[in-house]
Amino acid sequence: MILRRTAISRRQFVRRAGALGVGGLSLAGLAAACGRPPDNPNSLHVDNWQAYIDETSDGATGTADRFRAATGIDLRYTEGVNDNQEYFAKIQPRLGTGRTIEPDLMVLTGWLAARLIRLGWADSLPLELVPNAANLDPLLRNPAWDATGRYTLPWSSVLIGIGYNRRATGREITSIDELFNPQFKGKVGMLTEMRDTIGLLMMGLGLDPATVSSFAQAAPAFEQLARATRDGQVRAFTGNDFIDDLSTGNFAVCMAWSPDVLRLGRDNPDVHFVIPEQGGLFGADVMIMPKGARHRESAAKWLDFVYDPAQAARITAAVQGLSPVAGTAAELAKFAPVLAANPLLFPDETLKKRLRPFADLSEDVELQFDEAFARITGA
Q: Cα torsion for 115, 25, 79, 45, to the nearest 10°?
């Protein structure tokens, strides 16, 4: 059994840069924000994950450069978010003591945004200055992590389901149960994201991850995972590098994030992504404003810009995640009709009914989940 656990984030397969890569958010950068007077009011700092936007290349102008040209705002767009827990550890010493950090907007996964909101470390967004916020997909309005809808706007969503290599399986895969099929012993991958792995296993057991509020409710999923890990069914727990094993066939079947498999499938026709018959999960990465952000008006212009369907279409074409912006499909159809027709990018109502979010856990229950998951994975 090859039981490894990696910390590589799900957005790193395009460019495997470090957490403090070029333009990243360094601890020095965080410290520099302390006590600094407001700088150019026509400036903005957005911190995002790596490879999570369309870039300027091959004659095409990327979103960041289009925004600069359209607004005249001095945008500093960085890719300092490498892992949610790691990022929280960076910002905690400052936000936790009432000080500010450098970014005006950060893109974080919903559950971490919920934590910042609970802690009082987030400012409400200037939505009154963002008319395009009306384009938010109704499916994503008032999520569990932001019930009032005042603190976050989704950047992109991801489907969590099953990836498989048709050459390794010899057939199509449609069920979560296949993760435990003895035929694939030692060739199964699970994800290092606790919510994604446990949530999908809960769905396979007929449990609802959207309503879980205690460890006891999820205990059968943890027991199933522990048993499969102990018996050698699971080859590895991986982050985004599941694509390497999936592409080569080291993983016959694995838990997977839809954008990664869709991009991989462009070059490897053996690789497929499916929402299993029991259903799948969806999650969102959201834009959130840290407490004390200095450039609210510039941030509003950015939010309004990326919520324009024409701009959202460019981002979606590059990222291949689910756009939160209504009208994106029609814009995407103008230059990428195949993508615009892909149900994994634009789910119909039938598919949406089969998707569930993971519940927003209380701090004590979340700690129980994290500790149990770490014992199984060896983290």
A: 80
pLDDT in tens, 231-240: 999 999 987 7
pLDDT band (50, 70, 90) for residue 3: low
Q: Three-state SS for 147?
A: coil
Closest C-alpha to 271, from 8, 6, 13: 13
27-63 pLDDT tens trace: 334 444 444 445 577 999 999 988 899 999 988 999 9
Is-contact 289 123, C-beta < 8 A? yes
- What is the rounded CA–CA span in Å between residue 274 and residue 127? 36
pLDDT reported for residue 37: 44
CA distances from 189 to 2, 5, 250 (A): 10, 10, 9
The pair of structure tokens assigned to 367 is 């700690």
Return the pLDDT at 36: 45
Task: Tell which residue, 335, 336, 331, 273, has the closest CA to residue 306.
Answer: 331
pTM: 0.80
Strand 43-49 and strand 105-109: the pairing is parallel
CB 274 within 8 A of CB 162: yes
In the chain, CATH 3.40.190.10 sits at 27-157+284-326, 158-282+358-377
Q: Which CATH architecture has domain 158-282+358-377?
A: 3-Layer(aba) Sandwich (3.40)
| CB neighbourhood size of 338 (10 A) | 9
- Specify whether the CB–CB gap between 234 and 378 falls below 8 A: no
DSSP structural state of residue 35:
T
CATH number of 27-157+284-326: 3.40.190.10
Contact by Cβ (8 Å): 163, 255: yes
Residue type at position 1 = M
Question: Which H or E run contains 247?
Answer: helix 242-248
Does position 10 have pLDDT exceeding 90, yes or no?
no
